[in-house]
Amino acid sequence: MRRIYITGVAGFIGYHLARLLLDEGFIVHGMDGMTDYYDVTLKRRRLGELQQRPGFGFAECMLEDDQTLQADIAAFRPDVIVHLAAQAGVRYSLEAPRSYLSSNIDGTFNVMEAARELGVRHLLLASTSSVFGANTDMPYRETQ
Fold first, then answer.
1. Which of 44, 65, 115, 118 is surrounded by the most beta carbons within 10 Å?
2. Which option is the CATH number for 3-129: 3.40.1010.10, 3.40.190.10, 3.40.50.2300, 3.40.50.720?
3. Running DSSP on this structure, what letter comes out for residue 101?
4. C-beta neighbour count of 119 within 10 angstroms
5. For residues 81 and 3, what is the distance between their CA atoms, to the nearest angstrom?
6. How far, in Å, CA of 113 to CA of 83, rounded?
7. What are the phi and psi torsion angles at 6 (to 5°)?
8. Do 26 and 54 meet the contact criterion of CB atoms below 8 Å apart?
9. Which candidate, 8, 71, 68, 69, places its Cα nearest to that of 35?
10. How many whole angstroms separate alpha carbon 93 and alpha carbon 87?
11. What is the rounded distance in angstroms from the CA atom of residue 135 to the CA atom of residue 66?
C-alpha cells in the first residue's frame, strides 16, 4: 500500500488530492500550519471530513519547524511526499517578506532535507504560475 504525505493538506488542492488518493486506496498523512491567510474555518471543515476517512492522519505544524516536521514525516514513513504548503500571496510577500521567505524557502528546504535524510524516494513540489510573472508565452516553461 502506497503511503503519501501531503503538506498543505487543508488547502484547496491538498484537500482534493487527499480525497482522491483515499478514494484510490492510498494511505494519506497530511500536515498544515492552519494559518489564517485563508479561512481557517473552511480548513477545519475540510480536515473534519478527511479525518472521518479510514487511512487518513493529520498533524498541525509549520514548515519552518524542521524538527516537528521531520519527526512527523519519519513517524509516517511515506513512499511519496507531495509538497503543496506555502505562504501564498504576491502582495503579502511585499508586506511581510521575512515570513514569506521563512515559510516558502526555509520550509521547502526543510521538506526536501527531511525527504533526503529519511530516504523518501519521491518528492513532488507544486508551485504557482506567479513565479513566471506577466509572461504571456504559453505554455509556461521553466527556461523562461
1. 115
2. 3.40.50.720
3. H
4. 7
5. 9
6. 12
7. -120, 120
8. no
9. 8
10. 8
11. 34
Give CA–CA dist 120/40, Å, rounded: 30
Give the count of beta carbons closer than 10 Å to the beta carbon of residue 86: 20
Are 80 and 2 spatial neighbours (Cβ–Cβ below 8 Å)?
Answer: yes
85 conformational bin, left if phi > 0, alpha if psi -120 to 50, beta if neither? beta
Model's pTM, two decimal places? 0.89
End-to-end Cα, the chain, rounded Å = 39
Kindly state the cell numbers that stand for 75. Answer: 513517524
Domain extent listing, the chain: 3-129
Q: What is the pLDDT of residues 75-124, one digit of tens each?
A: 999 999 999 998 887 787 788 889 888 888 999 999 999 999 999 999 99
Q: How far apart are CA 108 and CA 83, in angstroms?
A: 8
